[in-house]
Design a protein that fits this description.
The complex is a heterodimer. Chain A is of the alpha/beta class. Chain A contains 17 helices and 18 strands. Chain A has helices at 13-25, 73-76, 79-89, 96-116, 148-163, 227-234, 262-265, 279-282, 292-304, 325-331, 333-343, 399-421, 433-446, 453-464, 474-491, 505-527, 554-560, and strands at 2-9, 31-34, 51-52, 58-60, 66-68, 130-131, 141-142, 166-168, 171-179, 182-190, 196-206, 245-252, 269-271, 316-319, 352-361, 365-366, 379-381, 386-387. In chain A, helix 14 packs parallel to helix 16. Chain B contains nine helices and seven strands. Chain B has a five-stranded mixed beta sheet. Chain B has a two-stranded antiparallel sheet with strand order 6-7. Classes of the chains: A alpha/beta, B alpha+beta.
Amino acid sequence: MIQHDVVIVGSGIAGMRCALEIKRQAPRSDVALVSKLYPLRSPSVVERTGIAAALGNVHESLDGTITPSGGQRDLADSIEAHIADTLSFGGGLGNSEAVAALCEAAPSAIIELELMGTPFSRTSEGRIAQTMGAGHSKPRLAYAADRTGHAILHTLYGELVRYGIKIYPEQFLLQLLVADGNACGVAVLDIRSGDVALINSKITVFATGSYGRVFGVTSDTQSSTGDGVVAAARAGVALHDLGNVQFHPLGLHGTGFVLDERLLHDGAYLLNTTEQRFMANYSPALGERAHPAAVLTAITGEIAAGRGAGVAKDHVWLDVRHLPAQHVREHVPYLIEFAHDYLGLNPFDDLIPVQPTAHHTLGGLPTDLDGRVAGLANFYAVGACATNGAHGTAALPGNMLAAAVVFGRRTGGVIADHLNAGDLVYGDVPNRALAQAEAEIAQLLSRKGDGRVAGLREELLHSTSHSNGARSDAALQQQQIGLLHELRGRFDRVALHDKGRRFNTELVEALELDRLLEVSSAIAQAKVGISTAAPAFSPPIAAPAAPSISSAPAITQTITAPPAPPIS
Amino acid sequence: MKVRIRVPRYDAATDVTQKFQIYTVEVTPTTTVLDALNQIKGHEDGTLAYRRSCRSAMCGSCGVMVNGRNILACNTRVMALESPELSVNPLPGFPVIRDLVVDWDPFFAKDAVMLPYLITDTAPPESGERLQSPSDWQRIENSTRCIQCGCCSSACPVQWSNSAYYGPAALTRTYRFVEDSRDTATKARLDLVGNETGVWRCHTIFNCTSDCPKGILNTENIQTLKRKIMLSRLGLGRIEVRSRVPETV
């Protein structure tokens, strides 16, 4: 059996940053990274706009131009302002302690990324360039052209190579191994060979990312299927607040890719099917420059009222034709790329179809600020699969990336301290673990039936494209629970064409569908207030500012939150 | 519109040669090559193996050769290819594991040889980041677009005949750090690639530039490295060679 001091599942920014910190502070430790993908393929790459930190490298003048702040960085921005913006954007429901931990550590975490070589864009003074983001009172988004997540991920990957950290690519997480209340490793499927293997560890870290793929329209990648969240739940961890999902108003129609809200701030229009601007009906004072939550409500409202465009009346139009082309090219170049590559459109001549899209999943494994998952010893979680209350009901733009780096580093430091203290031992892997993990694979491969993975998945995604989205209400959710029950029954009759073991991607898709069904059920039940299981522990951090909102539809709270002042 | 898609079927563990299979797929103006493959896998033949993840041309998973050109399946619309038949193949020059899935281990091993991290002998500033001028940043803008999809190295005929050649992806990685004003290991990096498995194996065929889905000037980068190596051997030190940066779109 393979043994490592620490096994980290997931090779996105959070997992890599955690691995790196462990190796830096405990150089003799043996850390391994296990991932469903090759590390550079991780979903972190799709985070394009920026990473938030109160560096104060630039300030914005009254006419909106952004200039370097010179020697007055303390005047340009402050940790307190970042904290206030984060709390406000999160509907006032963020945990103030977690928010403070995030905002205070973000500047040093980003400086560190720069020192590692991240190719951040620059101000004329040579400092890390920053720009405005929705919900920010100051220009605070540090960016690397229009590919910030990609730039950070590739830089961290280089550090892993420098430190010689062991990586196991293309391993599907099957189970979290638990013995006597201790996490002691994972069971994985090696996708390439089709073999099931156990990895035994003193400490197990999940950095398995989001579960956004449960939604029909999402900005998430095809790999974001909640594998880690489900594996932990099956090992007895009570999940927190899965229904807390942040929707973005501007998803590119047909793909769900997020287009930056700053387009609206910069003067883009939103039009309905009759090509009438409608934002004034929802937000007379601010129009398109309203708070993103208000824009989301408005677009959802137009579509619900039958004024959506297209045959399915499922989108509205984004109009940037009147904006200076140079401005769009400079600030949101990927709008031009997306429109051309995926729709064959040119945003300077054509209207761009947009619809609300599931953006960030904010529920998952409840952790404290050090990443410890409550209820299971030697088990940590970082990144999008973890929730410590730093985001409330909506993550301020750039804060998801910042949290991955900040809490990845912090958790890595805590783990390194444990390793340096030398008081950890390998937990005993349960005798039947390998047989159990193997049974799931063998059972899927040997099934006979007429069901197909893709057909079932399409039905699931069709159902979640509206009922879990912005149009959620109790009756729809009840219907959804019934449907999910039926889909779960039919999943047992799904048979695979591919009965082989080597690189069986149909098998992987079946495993993913199983996880997606599980997460979908948990979300639907949370939304109608059914408690699936008595929580084995209280919410992660007992703070009065962070009430558990698992029994209420989180998205409704986002929408009804009082519109915050517009950008600038 | 109906399109015929021809895919080689092959399992390295059991098969000696490829068998070809033809699928017919109904496409709309927005169907991408990846959508078409998903349609085949989901509704016609679940045994077809290929990789995919982000769908938005950022993760580098879905590089394939379609009608003779290396592309990303996810950001290429079928109709934009203007052909009623697509021949979809695994990236040439890489060992095939199964169907369209290639073995990336040798590719990433070459990348790791390139010391793909910042090396500097200057101490970091007491507070804050290292400074870099916008024009110095501009010099690495193009090469830091790389998503390591392998389309370039796979398009290189030299790579096909000599698998020891580092290939354009790895050499662009070296270029990215050589050109970075913060990196001081220029000599070590040039020594690393100034040999016959490195830049001197490049015959300036330009396939790597024309097939890069991110518009990276791979061949030009290799040529710049060659010039720097020659100039430094002539004792002329680090010569500034400004790269030509194309428009993003």
